Amino acid sequence: xxIRTKFTETFGVExxxxxxxxxxxxxxxxxxxxxxxxxxxxxxxxxxxxxADLANEIAKTRDLTDxxxxxxxxxxxxxxxxxxxxxxxVIVDAGIKIVETAGSNPAPHLPMFHDNGIKVLHKCTSVRHxxxxxxxxxxxxxxxGFECAGHPGEDDVPGLVLIPAAADKIEIPMIASGGFADxxxxxxxxxxxxxxxxxxxxxxxxxxxxxxxxxxxxxVAGDERGTELIFRSLHNTARVASNEVSREVVQILKDGGQxxxxxxxxxxxxxxxxxxDGDIDAGIWTVGxxxxxxxxxxxxxxxxxxxxxxxxxxxxxxxxxxxxxTAARV
Length: 330
Ligand SMILES: Cc1cc2nc3c(=O)[nH]c(=O)nc-3n(C[C@H](O)[C@H](O)[C@H](O)COP(=O)(O)O)c2cc1C
Known about the structure:
Elements: H1 6-11, E1 17-19, H2 28-36, E2 40-44, H3 51-64, E3 70-74, H4 84-93, E4 98-102, H5 110-115, E5 119-124, H6 127-136, E6 140-144, H7 159-167, E7 174-177, H8 183-191, E8 197-199, H9 201-204, H10 213-221, E9 227-230, E10 238-241, H11 244-254, H12 259-262, H13 268-277, H14 300-322
Parallel strand pairs: 1-2, 1-8, 2-3, 3-4, 4-5, 5-6, 6-7, 7-8
Antiparallel strand pairs: 9-10
Helix pairs in contact: 2-3, 3-4, 6-7, 8-14
Bound molecules: flavin mononucleotide (FMN).
GO molecular function: monooxygenase activity
EC number: 1.13.12.-
Protein name: Nitronate monooxygenase family protein
């Protein structure tokens, strides 16, 4: 049995599950494992230091899978922006057919992607941005609720409201993210009107994810309260793991500090050390409230087949059994 949705049909994957872009984590081994499991994985373009490195990472992924996969292009305001046009050109030249855009309006990138037969799944955190992206002509929406790892936006609307509110206005395929980690989440997302789920934290904690084992074990040991929201006062909120560094950042900004005052604490090189060396207090690292639902470190294949299998059982079993035909109710 399989679960077919508008998302699986449009994006040509077996299961209604995506692995969204993840800085430092979305690399060839993980993305290929997700593809081989029948879900949709995205290489994170900006994890690669140069566009040429992205081309190599795409080639490496192709060596590991012949199934479809995509590339995430996160467009964030920066003092020295990366060469987005060059990364985009590499994506096109490599023959990638699915791109996940995130961070800001995808309009400048759409014509080139569409002219080259690339489908665009735009990730956003509010109904109004989803509606805007739909009107721009993207091929799918990925709506990320307040529970999510990374940037939840500034509206603080959790998935239970965000997903159905978006579903009321979105006609193209839409997947939901933020706090999804198991079959119950997938079934709930489908019930709320989504066509599938996108997961970050859950895929981060798998055998094929190339981060240090200590980080995976910290996720398993942690619970749903184990995150902090940093940069609130700067209107650039990010949900990250609660540790010595993130708690200090929260305090400094609460006391009226500015970005300059926390710049060194939040430096990317420090966060990178967490993933590479396994020192979970070395810097800022990203994870979501889904941590409270993550209790093991399975292979990606085991994880995807567990989620899909249990979702099917849940729909046809527990939920199906709750429904009694009206005539039988006396
Ligand atoms: C370690 C990590 C890094 C992330 N980096 C990015 C990124 O660079 N670009 C992006 O669009 N989303 C990024 N995300 C967000 C994920 O793609 C996804 O939207 C999010 O994790 C969903 O919430 P969940 O963690 O509750 O599943 C990141 C998430 C994690 C856990």
